[in-house]
Design goal:
There is one protein chain. The chain has helices at about 1-10, 15-20, 40-55, 60-65, 85-100. The longest helix has 14 residues, at about 40-55. It has two domains: about 15-55, no CATH class; about 55-103, no CATH class. Helix 3 (about 40-55) packs across helix 4 (about 60-65). By secondary structure, it is mainly α. The protein is globular and about 40 Å long.
Length: about 100
């Protein structure tokens, strides 16, 4: 449980978080440094798990509304399924406005 609680208490800015996971959106390779963190097949597996399980019981709803892999976090206003409310609304608005979705 110690490891779990330590991972849940990591503090990151939005910029740090998006930069830290950018490689998942680029087939396992950081598009800025060109460093390969995962093989393409591994990144695909991680993204598919995030899409299907990343928001617990609300994963299907998140996939339908947002159309991108995601992982819920702890903090802020939590919805009935235990996910961060704004953290689910913001990417839905983003993909609706930009048309960027895997569906």
């Amino acid at each position: 449980m110690d490891v779990y609680f330590k991972q849940c208490s990591i503090s990151m800015s939005t910029k740090e978080l998006s930069r830290g996971l950018l490689y998942l959106a680029n087939h396992g390779i950081d598009p800025i440094t060109k460093k390969e963190f995962l093989a393409s097949s591994q990144a695909k597996r991680v993204n598919s798990l995030m899409l299907t399980c990343g928001h617990y019981d609300a994963s299907g709803d998140f996939a339908f509304r947002v159309g991108l892999p995601g992982k819920s976090g702890v903090g802020g206003v939590i919805n009935k399924k235990g996910n961060f409310l704004v953290g689910t609304m913001a990417p839905e608005l983003f993909t609706t406005e930009t048309g960027l979705s895997i569906f």
